[in-house]
Amino acid sequence: MKNKFVNSLCIFVSTIIGFSSVIAQQSHVLTVKANHPTATIPPTLWGIFFEDINLAADGGLYAELVKNRSFEFTNPLMGWKEIKQQGSSILVINRSTTNPSNPRFARVSVQSEQPYGIVNEGFRGMGIKKDTGYVFSILARLKEGTIGTIHVQLINAKGDHIGEESIVISGYEWKKYSVHFTAKATEPKARLKLMFDGKAVYDVDMISLFPHDTWKHRAGGLRADLVQMLADLKPGFIRFPGGCIVEGRDLANRYQWKKTVGPVEERPLLMNRWNTEFAVRSTPDYFQSFGLGFYEYFLLAEDIGAAPLPILNCGMACQFNSAEVANSDDLDEYIQDALDLIEFANGPANTKWGKLRSEMGHPLPFNLTMMGVGNENWGPQYIERLKIFTKAIKDKYPKIKLVNSSGTDPNGERYDYLNGELRKMNVDFIDEHYYKSPDWFLQNAKRYDTFSRNSSKVFAGEYAAHSKLSNEAVAKNNWESALAEAAFMTGLERNADVVQMASYAPLFAHVDGWQWAPDLIWFDNLHSYATPNYYVQQLFSINKGSIVVPIQLKNEVVAGTDSLYATACVDKQSNELILKIVNTASRQQDYTILMEGVSRLSQLARVTVLSSDKLAAVNSFRSPMLIAPRDMQVNVNDKKMTLPLLPLSLTVVRVKMN
Ligand code: AHR
């Protein structure tokens, strides 16, 4: 189907080329100067930002299917339902003095001949796939009785069994039991039913169900289809874990990396700050199990070839929520966390934190080179704390680059103050965030053209165009927003000597559990799809190149004239010239591209087009490829080619320089 489409597109393009001599007379000209490098493109330019928002971690990337597996939610039986039997019961026991990181477990007393059961609803159900293997595990001991059996059953929406096994529990000591089975059917909203047999009292904790087919088949790992989507972006870096999640509503609820490493059963649960953030999208069952913690994060970064960029709390809670700050005399703990994270990532196995990394399975360092201090923090209180952090980190690790906040907006009083102060400090990176209208993105395509080349570098750490064409969450990722981002990104690439990293936000959203839209990747329990915004990110990332060269329209940068936005670069490795041209007009524009400063070019250029004639168009589970890249070829004649720039399109051209 795709080939048929590409063929017809080629015929269509050839027809246009047939008319090229006529068109060339009237068409406009874009001139590329391939031997005038203006900036070096860092390998980190296009990256990703992962935050546990919209069920991105628990219920998303982290492949655990059981919700509230350890009975630690505020309501300890949330997500669980009893199948009652007279005389049988469940009790939640708290042993916080002896086990503060995993205080609760459940005591199930079965006193009748009839089995008693509990059912877990999963994260908006459990996505189960036919013929796929699953591993069920549980920490258990008998409190009374000599032997007990737990029947483990997967049930579909109708209540039919689609997979089952049993486990015999014996002994009075805590022990991990596990059993493997294969699902007989596919079900997006399955549930896990546990039936306890025999007259006995069972203590149970860490009730878990994972598919075998996790990313790289790692036990307790990540959802493979979602990681693959990240890998396909070929990101230069991965920012983690936030976002507001770093700050917490108050300091007690801030993200603390040390509580996310080591055995999963010892990682204390925390309420997710997005649980209560938006009254209209309240998500009372949203918590952080930290099964996807800092070790898994570093591993993920390594797997997909992205440089890790962890963000740490700088002693300030979210200023929108509580505005609580740690007294500057009390910052030591926060600073120590930052220093220890560097040791965890890079330290030899004979250091305290390097040893833990090694014991967790990664003796070699993760090669951490940069770190963020604070998320969207602002005001003099931020600068005061940042100076203390910077000194401590740079004294011990002078090579680590630091990323610093410029607040919540790319302009205004807060931004001006922070931008000024940070540049006075000559910081490594200033993190700018913009969630703005598509129009803002178009108007700001030249934003960085006038930034200082010899001062701090910019990290466009969070951005997304927020379209108003629809109020429906998934429809916010429409072509209008993606096209505006593409236009803006030409400005980022053109200024790659200033903007050295950029990441869209947020990354993931579960269709049944989101709090924030638009988002780059939408998923449900079984599937996921890439938005048009994803394809824009991908096209820029996989066509990154190594040096920027000028592309001009009437001797000017291409940033709005004739509704066009463009950038050009040379990929030194493949020796190709790469052009990215965005046509925001709703008419086709035919342009002659003149490529100067090259001795010879191949006669065919590879062209990839992302387009839709409707600004409101979106991808969906039903039509995931409605707006997706289409490939074709265009003739190059004597360093010249005629490009039909489709209405509302992003066109990427790669042409070999011989
Ligand atoms: O991306 C969603 C949120 O937007 C981030 O957590 C925060 O940094 C920003 O306000």
Estimate what percentage of residues fall within beta strands: 25-35%
Shape: globular
Termini separation: 34 Å
CATH class placement of the largest domain: Alpha Beta
Structural class: alpha+beta
Spell out the CATH superfamily of the largest domain: Glycosidases
Task: Examine the coordinates and then state which fold CATH places here, giving the name of the CATH topology of the largest domain.
Answer: TIM Barrel
Number of helices: 12
Identify the strand order in the major beta sheet: 3-15-18-19-20-21-22-23
- Helical content stands at 10-25%
Please compute the radius of gyration using only Cα atoms.
Answer: 27 Å
Give the overall average pLDDT. Answer: 95
Largest sheet: 8 strands, parallel
- Overall structural domain count: 3
Number of strands: 36
Uncertain parts: 1-26
Bound molecules: alpha-L-arabinofuranose
What is the architecture of the largest domain at the second tier of CATH? Alpha-Beta Barrel
Write a structural description.
This protein is of the alpha+beta class. The protein folds into three domains: 24-43 and 548-657, Golgi alpha-mannosidase II (Immunoglobulin-like), CATH 2.60.40; 49-63 and 220-545, TIM Barrel; 80-211, Sandwich (Jelly Rolls), CATH 2.60.120.260. The protein has twelve helices and 36 strands. The strands form seven sheets. Strands 3-15-18-19-20-21-22-23 form an eight-stranded parallel sheet. A seven-stranded antiparallel sheet has the order 2-27-30-31-36-33-34. Strands 4, 7, 8, 10, 11 and 13 form a six-stranded antiparallel sheet that branches. A hairpin with a 4-residue loop joins strand 25 and strand 26. The longest helix has 17 residues, at 2-18. The model is unreliable at 1-26 (pLDDT under 50). The chain binds alpha-L-arabinofuranose. Alpha-L-arabinofuranose binds at residues 51, 53, 242-244, 375-376, 408, 462, 505-506, 516.
